[in-house]
Batch of 4 targets.
Target 1
Amino acid sequence: MSVLVDADTRVVVQGITGHQGSGHTRQMKLFGTKVVAGVTPGKAGTQVEGVPVFDSVREAVDRTGANASCIFVPAPFAKDALLEAVDAGIRLVVIVTEHIPFHDMLIMYHYAKERGARIVGPNCPGVASPGKAKVGIIPNVVFRPGRVGVISRSGTLTYEIVNGIRENGLGQSTCIGLGGDPVVGTSFVDALPWFENDADTDILVLVGEIGGTAEEDAAEYIRHHFTKPVVAYIAGRSAPAGKRMGHAGAIISRGKGTAQSKQAALEAAGARVGRFPFEIPDLVSEVLRERGRR
Amino acid sequence: MVKLAEWRGKEIFRKYGVPLPPGRVARSPAEAEQWVRDGSVPLPCVIKAQVLAGGRGKGGAVRFANTPEEVRAAAQAILALEFKGERVREVLLEGKLAIGRELYVAITLDRSARVPILLTSSQGGVEIEIVEDSAIIRQPIHPFPGLAAYEKRRASQSLGLTGAASRALSPLLDALWKAFNAEDAELIEINPLAVVGEGLVALDAKVIIEDDAAFRHPEYSEIRDDRTPLEEIAREKEIAFVQLDGNIGVIANGAGLTMATLDVLTEFGGHPGVFLDLGGTDDPAKVSEAFLLMAQARPRAVFLNIFGGVTRCDTVATGLVQAMGQIPPAERFPLVARIRGNNEVEGIEILRKAGITALSSLKESAQSVVAAAQGPTAAGGRA
């Protein structure tokens, strides 16, 4: 078992002929992922990294049995790419593209939801389950198979922490990067039940950051429904209020959204919250030792 | 995020049919006087500074006038103001109305529910942050059907509107909903929305446009009121660059790692002054440009913290070494570098050849850069 992806995941890369699309197709294949198709309108018949390119997702699905998509197309075209993937029957879409307007993302999220498809992202590093499959861009070197689950709103900070877990001699079951945009296809609360039910996961690492209330929502879920131990880190304790990361309407969060609020909520829910990113791998090892699982 | 001044917000309101007081924008006292003399703005009128900061009423940035002479004097006084660090370039003149109740109406995004949300309160005219939660009605709007008639009736009821005022609310909410979507707004707020006679009038306008939708709104590209000049250059070069109050420059990649780096520096007694997020790049020239931009901010010391993914360590190292050669001796600063991840070994070697030692522990590098910012000696190397 794993979360979202497994050995049967067959990936179509939308925007495969671009610089990022082709480079990460190579990395996904090196990870062991079955990348079966690419899509770039007008480039059908060519190959990228040995992967056949089609004009449409529909053709890619019909010809290769692709069941997951990884989107690299530029932001103005991302909404169309998502709609095309969902309409072709794809049920997992990882959107790496950044700077997608949240108004577009609202349409994309609800469209996918109504058709039973799951979006991870946008502006995210994707999903990886070592030894099985990776859909996205997380560097291969940070992984090794293991039993630590990871959910994060960050990219590089996740790599840093996941790498630290590996250096401590542990490995990961599945790692999901949710992305840092205001509207995300998958939130902490969406992903937590998957890890609760995943037989391969013993402990969960949650990496959050300031803004919004996703971590407070997660804490609420953890308190009532999550039985596995949780280690958490929240980035942005020292970030000044009002400089970029601007909360879209302080009125919705009303006192929530600060790192302090998120840390307190998670601690109250029983999570071990690290003050520094480099403490997280050690906290994971410590909690597992206490529970006699190492 | 592009915050629009009141008058720009009201231009959007006018476009979509939100009722406004009769008004005009003036950029000089003479122009202000002319708008009342030619009858464009009726007397008595209110003269308001067009700045983004709140609290204008208490800060002397809003005045009333009964004669053309008073209008001129008020405009002159306000246009000479620097309000909370912002120079006043425009004033908005509006005819004074006989105001009844003051209400609050806004549409924004509910991130957790992933839907737009209509907020209404019968306690308008005060900062909404101080209004009790229970006095604010939250109506989620599903993006597919859009704002429904029953949702508008509910809003009207929550605001205590009846008769003609209640009927006036429906097209007003439709206009806000349309503007929220068509203008790619993050927030559209009317506070206060005044009951005037049998009708409703938007006395203020707060509109924030989403940055990421800039590609379909070239009309907003000229509005960049709240950025520093260096932040503006960075924006043009597509580098995320934020100026803070401290003296340590931070260059990292990815928002999360950048924030975590600031946190660690702060914990060890450092004061981050500028942070720069390289994001994902594989172009050494872009890294080099970022470094030169950092030099212009005159930091006491710089901490480079990179975890290589899309951005490879050797790319960053190459860009850094290129930039070093271009920084004049007088502007050089102590540099502490930490690079991990993709092509780490190659990156460290490139830095070593240029005389820069890369550390691998975040804790040690943070302590080292904090010390460098406090003292005259460089740690790690010199750029």
Note: The domain at 229-382 of chain B is CATH 3.40.50.261 (Rossmann fold).
Target 2
Amino acid sequence: MTGVRRFRSMGCEVVVGGACISELEQIEGLFDERDRTFSRFQDDSELARVNRLAGRDVLVSRPFARTLGTALQVAALTDGLVDPTLGRALEAAGYDRDFALLEPDPRPTGGAARGAWRNVRLVGQLLRVPGDVHLDLNGVVKAMTVDDALALISGDGFVSAGGDLATRGPLDVALPGEDAVRLVRGSLATSGSAHRRWLRGGRLQHHLIDPATGLPADPPWEQVTVSGRTCLDADVAAKAAFLLGADGPSWLDEHRLPGRFLRASGDVVCNHTWRASVPEVLACT
Amino acid sequence: MARVHPSSAENTPRLAPVRRRVTLAKASLGATGALVFGIGMVLSRAYYSGHSKQAPRALSPPADFVSIVRANQLEAGIIAPAEAPLGAGTSVS
């Protein structure tokens, strides 16, 4: 494995291991291209154009249609828990610019905007989003990009971007709460409210919106880590398990996915599937 | 040879029963036709393979099938206890 390279994209640090120079350039280019296409904060991105034209028929690019199609499948798979139509809810909570630029804002939050993924119409590359809906594809895009970036590495290696990690070849990975696990194959994703949060209207806000209320979720977990075959699987499952609150561990067990839940107090809860894989983890309850 | 037409007054008593029988026969024929058509429709709906046997419903897979498919769409990675110095970390997204 060659050295580890770090760069910033999609508002987070990307770490790549095991890639040669040309592969690194391709991976950086891939992240840059996806960021330019799917950023909510760049006026010239395709996502920003789609959001400006909400309520009208729009012809989108093939990559955009493919990504949105995947996001809608994910929404169906999770019964709408991981919903790509929560852009307005994020804006209402104050997340209306690059995270690095967010500052405490005393103004009250805007009105809640619930998820409306069932009302999005995508036929081939023809898209119609309801007039009162803004898309936010960030979670799905980042996870898909990590998966696609790993595919650009010819040998063993890994790609990590803000909580999403995919590897080819065994890799020991640090977990939230001073623990570690060996990722033998597949991916790990961590979702939660610990880092990407800000003050708005005197209250802490974060980016994981409950689609039923249109407001930042308030589960008992601070961070949820899930292992999936792909980074997309892991990221979707981690978000859904976080939003499900106390039902998260059993939901992951139903899907036979290992999940590790960290409370704000530092307590760790692991579901049965995780404990079956990592039996000697004493910190898990 | 010239044809002799009986007067209408003479014909009325003889024709009236005939007309009633004709009217009755027409009504019976119509009712029988409608009955045969109706029975035929019911039988064809019930037995003929080209006819639907119940009200149409939207195509949808059984609920348990859907739950099994959903449960298998998200696949797990493989994890094990850590052994070597850490190579990477998963913080939060």
Note: The first helix of chain A runs from residue 21 to 38.
Target 3
Amino acid sequence: MVNRSGLATALLVMALVSLPQCYSTTDPGNLVPPTAEQDPRLPQITLKVAGRSRQVHLQTFGDRENPPLFLLHGSLSDFRALLPFQALGDRYYVVMWDQRGNGLSERIGSEEYSFDSVVEEIDELRSRYAGGRPVSLIGHSFGAMYSALYMSRHPEHVDQAVLVEPAGLNGEIFTDTFNDVIDIDLFSPELSETYWQNEVLAPSSHEAMDYKALLLLENGHQTHYFCDADHPPRWPVWRPGAFVEYRRGKLMGAGLSGGSFDFDFAKGLDTFPRKVLLIGGTCSALGPDFQSRYHVPLFADAEVDTIQGAGHRMFVEKPDDVLVAVRGYLREYQ
Amino acid sequence: MALVLLALGLLGLRPSPANAQPIAASPLENANRAGSGFGWDQTWVLTLGYSRGVDQLVGLDGVQVDAGLALPLTQIPRANAFKLWLGGQRFWSAPGFGLVTASHLTSVLTNDPTGRKLGLGGELSLRPGYYAADWSVALEVAGRLALSTYIWHSERVRDLYAERYPDGSGAQDGPQDGWYWLPAARYHLGVAAGWLPSRSFELSGVIGFDYSPQVEGVIDNASIGGVPFYIRGEGAYRW
């Protein structure tokens, strides 16, 4: 018969022996890919924004002498899904980057993330890659909202703008339409799977948060974005930046599950002197009807282009149709 | 029995929570108890449990062992998740003002688009309160620790690593399958109550706050951080 102290010692020794074979959720590369400062093989630059220098994952396409064109990705995303737009490098100098805290760019702290710092980030890149010239912007989802924010703050720095399915550009629109776009259903099995994961892997680190956020991208029922909510198209991403998503929600005034939002990315957009293109997919709650009703009135001159049979992830579903729509607007293709 | 108690003692070195444990209203005194509960604890959860008073077996008053199963309700049709527990409780100084201590070993399975995960951990709870003969009210302080979780990453996670470099490579450096050390901890602070309307039937419930250490303390975002409350009701038959 084994005595108690002997058994306790054996169990303790087994536990200690197994320790070195255990992974940590926070070690780079275990749960999500290493970020730029952890992986020198990634194309990257050092960018100083909000008083902090961070490594930013960035690629350019096309001749530097071409007109500059910046691509802005949306939330829980990076520029991987925007790679089809490298085709525009034949007429433009295309600049794609993972916004600070997103994708393969270095993670940031909460003190570094504000809407002012988002504007500063775009402006810093404009100085570096556009040589002071006005830039054309293509933004998707929150990237489209940030494009509008930049136009609002610096209309003189923007030449053309394509906004692909931005959500409400101010707190009033965002609040009024929140329930049309977002659906947090506590009886959804997909959301249950997200929560149940907390039993074995909690969002106690940035890496675990990012890993968990992948479940939000896979849940086709939490947003009214898709033609087939049971089978949403896979969104190409390297790392969903969950902490930035959380901080952005706080900046917008979000509570546990929505609430009243308080921000304004639309101020002064009606003075922008050139036409703006809004694009929407017919399956998305942020589609052409939404853009026509809520956003066209915010601009002096805006046009809505419709991508048939596509949802919010139209770059995956109908990349050629989107490129046709964008080329139909951009001046260098006329 | 010695092995179980010893294992519980080892886990007791680190506090951990309480959705697994039956909300016992009073000692079982060598009787049996089988019950079912329903409530919100991370998600909607259905629990099935069995307890047995073992006072005579262990030579101590107010000791019971229990085992059970928790199923996330909306995932039952998918048959992709469960939690098993095995452990025990002891009533100290009941009836009257007293304390219930409980510790359990747990095993949790999850299956979602990021892959399959098997967690091994433990729970420890303290319920100081008033335990009358046929009712009880107590404060609940509990901790739940995932000691180690084995993760089998899905193809979806592996795809995160693909095409990271301009030449299209990167996939070969993929995520690490294996045991992850101390991947989750949660703490409960709540109020539990129980009532025995008859000698053979017991009703109980618990409600409180759920705290999980997260980036920046508590993530005030329902989609990422979860809902920081728990509530559960339970009915049990005694014989």
Note: Confidence is low (pLDDT under 50) at residues 1-21 of chain B.
Target 4
Amino acid sequence: MDSSSLQPLLLFLQSLISGILVGGVYALIGIGLTIIFGVMRIINFAHGDIMMIGMYLTYNLFTLAGIDPFLSIVVCIPLMFLFGGLLQKVFINRVLNALPQNQILLTIGLGLIMSNTMMLIYTSDYKILTTEYSSGSFSLMGLSISQPLAISFVITAVITAFLYWFLMKTDMGQAIRATAQDRQAAQLMGINVKRMSIIAFGLGAALAGTAGALIAPTYYIFPQIGSSFTLKAFVITVLGGMGSVIGATLGGILIGIAESLGAVYISSGWKEVLVYVIFLLALLFKPSGLLGKSRM
Amino acid sequence: MSIITEIIETLKKTPPARLLTFLALTGALFIFPQAVDSPYALHIMILVFLSVIMGGSWNILGGYTGQYSVGHAAYFGAGAYATMMMMQFREIPPWFGMLAGVAAAIAAGLIIGSICFRLRGPYFVLASIAATEIMRLSALNLKDLTNGAEGILATEIPPLSIGSALITDFSSKAPFYYIGLVFALAIIGVTWLVQHSKLGYCFQAIREDQDAAHSLGINPGMYKQLSLTISAAFTSLAGSFYAVYIGFIDPTTVLSLDMSVQIVLICIIGGIGTIFGPVVGAMVLVPLSEALRSNLITQTLISAGLVSEESPVGQFLKENLAHAHVLIYGILVVVVILFMPEGVLGFLRKRLAERGSKTA
């Protein structure tokens, strides 16, 4: 075979790989959202904005203290966990029994406060976090792979595996899952449901913040970046099945691939339209998602 | 004819004092531009009217029918784009563009409704957002049609004349004031009709319990679509009005999620499912966000001696607070949801009722 007939295949594999790598980070954002939804039945519209705060945190750690963005997650995870727990304790807990639309509006309001506060502090200028490896890449079997994306994918995989172990094997993980299955029954079994909610929101925020830290070297950083990621996170969780961690992982990678292939074969302007079309189709024909039980 | 007798019957039941107050206020609003000769005051009033139209039309679908669309920017954008595209690219007066916008919004509503109304609760909200995002991205990508991200800038508004008589050339703010006022009164009237008509009862039955309404023979799909059609048509009018008044539109302003949220907030802050909720919401939101935008708040803080103008904090506020007028929306919605879930109007009513029962 000559190289020209290999070209289309190579292009396909190339975009497939980069789709999977980006999808890993999407999965992280989706898992955070799905845990929050699973435990509290609340759709967190501030999810992308929490991620945006993680991005700025990483940016500051890098520019002020010179900490590598990928190392910064060691600081980012606990800080964002506390931030999420605080949000839950101060705001979300008060609307747990309110109308779903009021819950949605509350998180929308919190998101607006976050993005506009960041805009006050950092202005709406685009910030770029440039590391030595930001544009670096290595080649694997003839495919060129972006170095920061590859590192972030590995970190994502480790975090996801750890999270899965935590939810499945530890007492606290089981308590969280019990709360997600049946809040009242869990309470009757002596589980501190309020505490589990705080931990769940903390986890969700930590995951979103970590995702923000991981994409900080490859994306522009600006206060309004959150809303597009919030929407993406919804698409991912609905696609995977609301409340399912593995579903969100799968959904994230699928959306990453769809975007990457869409950008190559349709156009980069229309790739997001493709994502939303997939989303609407999924809502219409498989509302329970790929792996979730129907909750409608 | 039955509608007219129904209207008269309901009007007879309305307390005359309330009716008179409403008529007096309306009359005062019609004289306002003659009495006050300040373009800025007129500008604020026009923005209030615009918000009333936006919030009022969302109220029909969200407040009375219980369908929390967070995608009303789709209809707002349809009106804005239809009007501007026809006015700038084809030189068709905005009056026709406005009608085309209403038609486009109703068509968009039919498509979006047929997808979204099968879903409930959070899924409905998400689907309405996704559908609007598709419209925003389309407007961004169809550059030949919409000018893409550059947006459309109005160069000149054709004068309005009937026959050979020139009515206005839009050189002052007064014509916009009256158009806005008439639209705002129209949406208040429609809301009033919805509240008191059989159609409105069907809407409210669906809001309270869709399954129960269905079992009583109300077709939820049809009535939700009807409600959306009314709502979309008026939102589109607001979009056309905005486009011609401001003179510039682009996808990130008129078709954005922020616009959808803003439309919902007007209603939530005032009080949803009430006739005057959107009016109260508009009267709270517009002055507040204008005060931030025009740096009034920073100036007040400085003149009150709370912040020194030379201090870094003062400098910082002066430079940045104006850009963050959306912040006030965020803070307001959080406060309203946590402390007055029925909106300012519901909160005041409850307070009044409490006071009434105490004195009684």
Note: The mean pLDDT of chain A is 85.
